[in-house]
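From the pipeline queue, job 12 of 40. The input is one protein chain; the requested action is below.

Action: predict structure.
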Amino acid sequence: MKSFLERRLRQQEEEVTYLRSFLEVVDSLLAERSFRQVDIGPVSASPPKPQPAARGPPDSIPIMTTDGARIASMTVEPNALHVVPDATAKLDPNSPPLRSFHVARVLEPMQTKDKDAAAKGSIPPDNILTYNLEQADDVLKAIHIQNYGDDRRLMELKNAIRWTLRRMYEKTGGKK
């Protein structure tokens, strides 16, 4: 009973951490949009599919700063997500928002959850989330995420990436 309670407490604490981080993203979006309508794309009334099987051609989504500067492009494929910073944006791959938030609080927990699910036989081992951060000369060149999972997780990743890259850009003082 004790181990069950400890495990549930850890899960709840992890969920609170996620919720707080997404609340920051929502607050940030509200502040930058200031009551203007945000276009989030088509909204479906049907529940999300377990795996994104039939998405059409890859979607390319620009990532912009609050002042309208383009800092990256995000490409969504049926089972992969690729983020390529703009050539003029010099984003430090060792910056805390990337390492301590995006990797430590978003990607690694998702990967751990998938590994646990694979160990239990809930998902095939080749469906475990993997990620790669490309960098050269202390500049982030790309983020590649494979096996992101369902639409809910995709939205979670997209929001976390937007928030992270915007904070990284702000830490450089908005310099290009």
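Job complete. Residues 84 and 142 are 5 Å apart (CA to CA).
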